Amino acid sequence: MPDGSRASRPQAGPAAGPRGGRSRARTPEAVSAALPAAAAERAPAVASDNDAREPAAGAPQPEGAAGAANGGNGDGARAAAPTGHPTGPEDADGARAATASAPAAETTAHPGPEAAGHPGPAAPDGAGHPGGGERLRFVGAATRRIARGIDLDEIVLGLCRATVPTFADAILVYLRDPLPVGDERPVGPVVLRLRRTDQLPEHVRGAGEGDAADPGAERPEPVPDLAGAAAERCEVRIGGPLAEVLRGVRPVFGDSSAARAALPELLGDERPVPDRQRTILAPLRGRRRVIGAAVFVRRPDRAAFENDDLLVAAQLATHTALGVDKAVLYGREVYIADELQRTMLPDSLPQPTGVRLASRYLPAAETARVGGDWYDAIPLPGNRVALVVGDVMGHSMTSAAIMGQLRTTAQTLAGLDLPPAEVLHHLDEQAQRLGSDRMATCMYAVYDPVAHRIVIANAGHPPPILLHRGGRAEVLRVPPGAPIGVGGVDFEAVELDAPAGATLLLYTDGLVESRLRDVWTGIEQLRERLIETARLTGPNPPPLEPLCDEVLGMLGPGDRDDDIALLAARFEGIAPSDVAYWFLDPRPQTARQARRLARRALTRWGLEELTDAVELLVSEVITNAVRYAERPITLRLLRTDVLRCEVGDDVPQLPRLRQARPSDEGGRGLYLVNRLARRWGATRLSTGKVVWFELALPSHAR
Questions:
Q1: Helix, strand, or coil here: 271?
Q2: Rg (CA), the chain
Q3: Which of the residue ranges 214-228, 337-351, 648-662 would you say has the lowest mean pLDDT?
Q4: Confidence (pTM)
Q5: Are 370 and 399 in contact (CB under 8 A)?
């Protein structure tokens, strides 16, 4: 018997016997009597040792050390070793009999006294207390249950379920609001907020032990609600009684002088506190500071707490506080990871004229919500749009950081209006600068709604799928290319038709590849899924958002091992009748020619109301282009939901808006554009630049 062998070592105590009387000490009766007495003798030594330490009294040791204190049973905890109380053998036997059917701490609910893990009606005052082995087993089971929690609510719930009703009839857990994270220094006064309460059900609280033995006996008065009517919030006064108890760290009985003044401050003046030693106030101390308090309460008809119960409360409080510390740090890490991933992906997609967009992103797992998959849609001059989907190797914070750098680089390169193959080439160079093992796949496509064409370049990424208006789905044949980061590899682009009503799907390999299937099997399943979805809508293309949901629905339970990024683009295009395009030579007469051409186009479209504004703005922009251009100038008007005018030349310098002085002869052209146009801007191209402006259409033309 581990507990008996451990308790037989002391040479003093009422049951130790004379020196050399070893046979008597080994009898079960002597062992039962020696256990509480020996534990009582060791208790002052443990307390004095705790006094010598930093105020973490009753701090738990590793579970490996607990096994030695419990005779090899690793469930115990070292600080709870001094168990029992100095009573005679008869009391010890009575305590053993009373705890023979004590409930385990693995309680998850309190349906009634007959349920597993719940005791019957409480023993009357004066009944025996659990022995040392029972306390150690309870502390071991309770701390394991607390340690199983990951987030804050699970840890606090584990404390409540482990202590009620085995250790206490009610518990109140207060935590700091807000909880400090890591080494953060709290600002402002310390505020404790009631996080959770737990207690026996009302029908159990009102039952007495004599009811079952004598049904005709008079029932006792119902016990009041021990956890109710407590204050929800408490501001700890500096230098107040509650602050002193929290600073002392050690649990105290409710009838002590310190607790009598501290409990009303914590629970509220109207909250009744059971008399005698039926309440324990235990500060919750984390790694660096007190982060809360726990109040354990017993009913008046139950045996009061003893001195050894303070050690048990200290163990429970310390394990809970350390668990709360870990949960707060874990929550901060999850928050940082979520924010990092969220900020590196677009909050919303643009909706340029001629194309509709929808997207989805799914992390590999809820516990690892960062990864290297990304998608993007970047508006380009001429109502074009760049569609990007990429996948950085790995699922760590490093992968997410590399993904953010590559996405920023792709946006910068897209702003230069470089061809797709050139964009991938520069991304490959950037990945090599980041490190030799920084590899990623990427698909970069540019859609032109005026020409109804799309140019695609691939860097080791799964091929896109084009769903036609009639329901036919095809896997586009694009050059596979090498992943970004390999270096020394040329990328090739292909130009394909993009008919109106067709839908292009760009995705990462997490959608089509898993442990259960290879990439090409998954691509074929995705193509069949698109065909089945298109049949439901007949000749009309399926809506984009439900289409994305249907695509993700092809993933079965446990069929996802990687992040998933999905970008869907519905091509609508711009009709040729809504486009007017001219090449103009850079001559002094070009501004007058541009005004005449713009006026004719507006008359054809029935937009004569915009003639004066368009002629003025076109003249100013064309005049500036003629001054510096050496090659023909392009003028294009597009009628969509707005009227857009674009003027391109071969000069890469972008114009700047400035305030002209009264003596200046020029510098007022862009000022007029800024005042009259709905929007305007300038974009640098590989062959020069484009200056554009937009005007709102009249109400009858919208």
A1: coil
A2: 38
A3: 214-228
A4: 0.64
A5: yes
